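Subject: complex prediction, re-run

Hi both,

The earlier run crashed halfway through, so I resubmitted it with identical inputs.
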Amino acid sequence: MDSDQIHEFLGNSWPIYGHDWAVEHLRKSIAHGRLRHAYLLLGAESVGKNRLAHALAMALNCTHDDEAARPCLTCRSCKLTMSGNHPDMLYSSLDENTGALKIEAIRNVTHHLAMKPYEARYRVAIFQDFDHAQPRAQDALLKSLEEPPPYALLILLAHSAEPILPTITSRSQILHLRPVAAETIHRVLVEQYGADDEHAELLARLSGGRIGWAIQALDTPELLDERETALNLLEDIIGMNRVGRFDVAQELSRDKLALTPLFELWQTYWRDLLLLTENSAVPIANTDRAEQLQSLANRVTIDEALAALRATSDTLNYLKCPVNTRLALEVMFLDFPGLN
Amino acid sequence: MRVAVLQENLAKALSIAGRAVENRPIQPVLSNILLRADDARLQVAAINMGLGLSISTWIGAKVETEGDITLPARTLTDLVNNLANERVDLTLDANTQTMNIRCGTTVSNIKGISAEEFPILPEGGGGDVAIPGKVLRDMINQTVFAAAKEDNRPILTGVYTLFEGNTLTMAAADGYRLAVRTAEIERNFAEPLELVIPARALAEVARIISDDDSEVLFSLPDDRNMVMFNIGNTDVSTNLLEGKFPDFAAIIPKNYSTATVMYTTDLLRACKRAEIFARDSSDSAKLFVQPASGPGEPGAVRIVGQSAERGDNEGLLDASVEGEGVDISFNIKYLIEVLNVIPDERVVFESSGATNPGVIRPENRDDFIHVIMPMSTGR
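This time it finished cleanly. Structure:
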């Protein structure tokens, strides 16, 4: 996909779909020299936070002569930014074992941030999953946020602002990325990625507004299989007794990092169940599971569906803290319907 | 890209440039080493963004087709070190960015990343100041060890470098000790020029300087605030540290109450023996300086290292002591480090009491001085 195509599609060259107001806001800020030194991008997994952060970095460091045409997506700076090898792009990495954003990882980035850009106008630091940082780790960023060097731009990405200290949120401009409309995702998949209409329709609906997931699922059909497996597992668990559920808990607790996307998917399932038990007019997201959901909805009460949804979302929050993963999962499974 | 080089040369180039490769760099391409073939030579280069250090070295090569690529430093170095000392043929498949490496009957393929992804290396500077290699190497070795290792105070991880008139001064300090070395240079600086160069980068420069009498060309800061050392076929460039280096002249004691002259190697050995036992008491060892008991008698220095659990060591050295006796504790590792870089036969230890900084310097030389803070004895 080249920049002309994108330009025609969006009216600007930012490769971002479904977040027009955010792009427009950032474009104007750059054009009028009102860019803030720190942004906090909030939004669900795969909704486009990382892509927007990269587009902003590219727009700032692009070497295209015409400022309106930035990012050009073809110059050295844009290309290196996309490949992750731009020497002035800094990334924090999560701890491999705990999935936490550690104080050392943040210090490593701020150390680099203190140095002048190597070849670009700006040094851009992107902190993914900043809500995975403990307050003490977040503190490590305060100095850079308070007295940033003039060439520094910090972009924090997070699912929600709740776990983030007010000292951080008050020093950054918050942009909240909403789930992208299914029609937009559908259109992007068909017009920009050449998907066939029916497949695009399915992905758009299943994505729950997470456009990144939909685009990725187009390239990697395994994602759909993964989703299939994850939902099968959930339906299996509902049919299990306590012993069976605890076995699953032990199995799942081995890979803590894989749990967040899994539970986010399960949340959509419980939401669908809740909608059906309440006979709501809102259409369900997991349409391919309509049959199973309906039969389950006939058997459980509204309270049970709500309890399962709450248990899942609470556990998602617990996982951000140093908890015993297996115990947390066991407790959650006890709140899933089907035990009595 | 299609080149032939000698294994020995390639291994040496990789060992030089490889020193700049970061352990876990933020950008994946920085775990790689750049290979660029042009004009009968092969460039081997690496960059450490965290330190702002890049090392680039050139070796002679038979270049059939020019080209460039970056290859994972670890894989490439491990492989080349284990090849026979013969001709190595490097052939790049530009489509897959895979380097075919052939040596004797061994064939390997290493997957790389396009050289386009590699940061732009600093251009060779003007070579503004010529410094004899051996002099620079001594100056660096006699100062870098005293620079701070932690970056609580980033400026102290650098070596203060001053060009003034015909004199070059280098100084490093970490809050407990200070090393200052001066030398004459040919170029005259009417306006003094102060720089703080990262100690890590200087250590690499000293390591690369060979034993022959060649000169190192030093390029003054460019618009990117980088300096470059050109050492034979190798360029080392580094970012300068920003900030004000503490005024160290004030720390150097102006006078002393005791001056003791000792044989360097004897003192060094005694210190190393005391260190074995001092390890358990935060490296603190004691020096008892004893003036001569009468005319014609020698003075002495007793060095004691103690460990409550493991035992102790005591050494007695002949010394010529001028002034009063003194009992003083030092971090013995610091003493060892400074004595290691003094090649002269005898050293002078000057002290003005157990709580004041002591001075170590080579006898009859005034171009090197080391100031060291005593440790509190806790009595």
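The first strand of chain B starts at residue 2 and ends at 6.

- K.
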